[in-house]
Amino acid sequence: MDSVSVKFEDCANMFQESEVRDMYGFNNGDNFIEVICGCTSYRFGDTVGNLRVYSSGALEIKCECNPACNEVLKPTEFEKHALKETPGKWRNNIWVTVGGQKVPLSRTALLRYSTVKSKNRTYKRKVHRDEFVKCTKCGKRRRFAVLTEKKYREYHDAEIDNNWECSRHPNDRFTCADKEERQSKRRARGCHRDNMCSGCTSCVCFGCKKCRFSDCNCQICIDFLKNADI
Q: Where are its TM segments located (predicted)?
């Protein structure tokens, strides 16, 4: 039996051979299958990643938008990371390559076991849009994707640091020699309603438990914790 047949047999409990054999980048592990996926922005082109479909129904995408990116994202987060102009429809916006053609996830068998909630829940959830910190050495602005409390803390500490430099970005992905994002791209900050949003009630937060910290001595955190009913 050849290696390809073994792979299909290993994941037979999840998908039929005919459902996955023509998918570009197909691979499998002990409890997941993996395939190359992507999301296309009309303005910025394709963002490519590795989609893992776990037997539990969980989905995650390891982004490969550039060699320095090490983000592992949920489908909704990958859609945002790809700067898609119409976010919120990740089942149609994220695609895999089948027989040389880009096919939306919704038209494949890959979502059969998905436990990811529908887009309606995403629209109702307030999110923190991406933030930027200016390097005190070169003056370039660097993006922080504040998807979690930990990532927001990394941004917060950098933002209040009067001596912050590119080399101290938490992902170790920048030096002062790297180009700054184009101004047009910086406008896309990850609002789930409109990726080019300049600030709305869904993506602008004036303080919450995720972005204000009891062990921080900055005046913003002190004032929030003093007045907040938490």
A: none
Q: Is the pLDDT of residue 89 over 80?
A: yes
8 and 107: one domain? yes
Q: Are residues 80 and 162 in the same domain?
A: no
Q: How confident is the model at residue 124 (pLDDT cuts 50, 70, 90)?
A: very low
- Sign of the CA dihedral with 152 first, then 157, 158, and 162 last: positive
| Domain count across the chain | 2
Give the C-alpha separation, 60 to 99, whole Å: 23
141-184: pLDDT as tens digits? 999 988 889 999 999 999 999 999 999 998 777 889 999 988 88
Query: Which residues span the domain enclosing 102?
Result: 3-122
Phi then psi for residue 135, to 5 deg, are -70, 130
Detail the DSSP E strand segments found in 141-215: 141-144
Name the one residue in this structure whose structure tokens are 């002990």.
Answer: 30
Task: Give the residues across from 101 on adjacent strands.
Answer: 98
pLDDT of 120 strictly over 50? no
Considering the domain architecture, whether residues 35 and 88 belong to the same structural domain is answered as yes
Which carries the bigger pLDDT value, residue 18 or residue 99? 99
- Residues 8, 92 share a domain: yes
Q: What angle do CA 42, 45, 50 make, to 5 degrees?
A: 125
Burial (CB < 10 A; 0-12, 13-18, 19+), residue 215, is exposed
Q: Cα separation of 174 and 165, whole Å?
A: 9
Task: Say whether both 192 and 82 belong to one domain.
Answer: no
What is residue 23's DSSP assignment? Answer: B
Other beta carbons less than 10 A from residue 19's beta carbon: 16
